[in-house]
Amino acid sequence: MERATAKGLLVVTGKGGVGKSTVALALAMAGARRGMRTMLAEVSARNDIPTLLGASESEPMKERQLMEGLQHISIDRDGALREYLRYEVGAPVPASALMRSRAFSLFTAASPGLSELLMIGKVSELTRRARSARRGGEYDLVVLDAPATGNAVALLSAPSTFATIAKGGPIARQARAITEILKDERQTGALVVADAEQMAVTETLSLRAALQGPLGVRVEAIVVNRMLPSPLAADELDGLEKCAVKGGAIRSALWLDARARMQHRQLARLRRRLPQGASCCTLPLEASLELGQERERGMERLSQALERRLR
Amino acid sequence: MSSLASVLSKARVVVCIGGGGAGKTTIAAAVAMWLASRGEKVALITIDPAKRLAEALGIEQLSGQPHEVSPQVLAAAGVTVLREHGMGTQGAGAEQSEGQLWAMTLDVKGTFDEVIERLAPSEQTSAQILSNPVYAALSSAIAGSQEYTAIAKLYELQHMSSYEAIVLDTPPSRDALSFLEAPGRLRRLLEDPTFASLASPSHHLARIARVAANAMRSLTGSAMLSDLIAFSELVIRMADSFQERAEAVESLLHDRSTKFLLVSRPDERSIREALYLASKLKDAGIHSCTAVMNRVHTLDPPYERADEMTAQLLASMRPELAAKVAAAHASIQLLARRDADSMRRLEEAFAGKRPACLRDEAEGLDDLQALGAACAQLFWSEGETP
Question: Measured between CA atoms, how close is B88 to chain A, in angstroms?
């Protein structure tokens, strides 16, 4: 946990539907609990994190407090472009005028990777040291709740894609700078979230390879989410299977046991295929979050579990 | 025949939409298998990053080219593709027809290249576009391309091949309906006078475009700007053809023989997303949509009252085991209640139409047998045999 949070930026990604946002929030809460001024960011106008705590959505591009020591932001492409034009470059025309220009919006829409670059650029801006109070102040830790697999790869490869196509100009220079930050394992790390299921495990292994390989982003840990407790002991299982009349209760117990067994098999499969020394931890299924009740307490428990299990 | 079966029995195009992880790929495959079992020649277009579907269907590698799934493989899943229909129109006696299932994956780059090659006015233009760096990045990089690729593939399969039914598994994207909106967006872009002004500097709008162009040049360098302009000039020449395609697909998506399946899981976040998609579909004028709830937990009949159940359990087993069983049952009961609630919410959003259901299998839906079981659950009523 110390090594992960020593970085400025932690990117949380994984297959769709495995609980990335929940784990990203748990991670950010752990950072805040340790006294780090933490920012949890979403891109592509996603605004799901506040609802995990039963709070209202955040206003786009506005840094908003979720709890003590933890801020949230929902980044959208137009907002990122507007900020970029206003603060980062000397545009020949005022930002507001450019944003109103249809030709300009056509150009920017047609430029491949520009939207992704602008959004990851805003995330990078949040990690800056000595960030002015006017812009929101400095953060010790930024957690990015990244999109699912394919879109996450597109987001993280946008800077280098763009630096290749656009040979000159300030955007290309910035793109190169962001590429360096992503590749520097002292500054950036990734967490890949998975379910203990066949498809998620397979996709996790290839996502890990894609992140560490071409993208050069160091994968700090794989987090296997929503694990059921250990399966029944052999004699207990035997006892249940031998019951002459299997009422609803016994069927439920057998079902959960079969699911737990499957999960543990998949977890073993994942661990077998990971290289030596690769970090892999599990998070328990948090019933309150599954059922949408007592969300704050459920998130607190999950966050404590994550802090304990990340090493 | 289940109610979902009667909805889809005359479909020529089935589009599966839904959030990431909902189970679109699995359900699209089950639908395609069922349509093939009815004697139709079916094309399944899927996104299969983990290659599990390819393995399950016995195809070495799903690619941009269709591969036939062997009838033996389907039979192993409990799906027969040789079918007897009812009375033929030609006269008395049953007709026998052989269904076929062909599967392919969305190959973004390949499809784009094909479209350009087909529509370009000359080989030279085609070569220019394919080697333009803006095109190179555009066609393989971003999520938006997948939507257009799905559309281009749909158009091609519909117009240029003999498939009787097409099942489309849509790409997961931030807005799962951007697939639907892509033809309209493309059409509006091509019709936009500003876009035209990029290609003809003498147009009076060029002056305005020049300010934006200068801004772009100072931001991204002049090389990229020239590439963009060159690319636009080339695309403008093919605008009419792109337009025609976009319009054809737009009307196909609204046709009565096109059915949408909205796939969702029963948890809060998935249901919220499904409700949002349902309302967007209505806004888009799409009314042929059925909900499919995946990974449902149901209350096991007969429902036992907690105290009766515990007494029975305690009588028959060790207290520690009885406690585990009671806890397991309580968890499933809670999940079943939540899922029933989610079903009700979807039912409301779909004007009282009850969603189709797939049970949450303890072992997960991974292999061919499981796809066959999904087929059976979705398409055959209780007690019916395929």
Answer: 44
* Alpha-carbon span B199 to B185, nearest angstrom: 19
Instruction: List the single residue in A107, A151, A262 with the smallest CB-CB distance to B143.
Output: A151
Q: Residue B210: closest CA among chain A residues belongs to which residue?
A: A103
Q: Which of residues 269-288 of A touch B (CB under 8 A)?
A: 287
Residues of A in contact with B267 (CB under 8 A): 290, 292
Write out the two tokens for B135: 């095109």
Residue type, B59: I
Q: What is the 3-state secondary structure (H, E, C) of A195-253?
A: ECCHHHHHHHHHHHHHHHCCCCCEEEEEEEEEECCCCCCHHHHHHHHCCCCCCHHHHHH
| Radius of gyration, alpha carbons of chain A | 22
pTM for the model stands at 0.86
DSSP H or E stretch at residue A73: strand A70-74
Instruction: Report the pLDDT value the prediction gives residue B83, as an integer from 0 to 100.
Output: 52
With CB atoms and an 8 Å threshold, state whether A113 touches B52: no
Q: Where are the beta strands (DSSP E) in B192-320?
A: 258-264, 289-296
Of A192, A187, A220, whose CA–CA distance to A207 is shortest?
A192
What pLDDT, on the 0 to 100 scale, is given for residue B145? 57
In which element (H, E) is residue B349 found? helix B319-349
Distance (Å, whole) CA A296 – CA A147? 23
Report the residue of chain A nearest B132, measured CA to CA: A165
Q: Is B302 exposed, middle or buried (0-12, 13-18, 19+ CB in 10 A)?
A: exposed
Residue-wise pLDDT for A203-229, tens only, equals 888 889 999 988 999 999 999 999 998
Average model confidence (pLDDT) across chain A:
88
State whether B52 and A198 contact (CB < 8 Å): yes
Whole-angstrom Cα distance, residue B328 to residue A226?
A: 16
DSSP secondary structure of A78-117: HHHHHHIIIIIS--SS-HHHHHH-HHHHHHHHHSTTHHHH
**Contact with chain B for residue A92, Cβ under 8 A:** yes
Distance between CA atoms of residues A181 and A144, nearest Å: 14
Strand ordering across the sheet containing A280-284: A64-67, A70-74, A38-42, A141-145, A9-14, A188-195, A218-227, A280-284
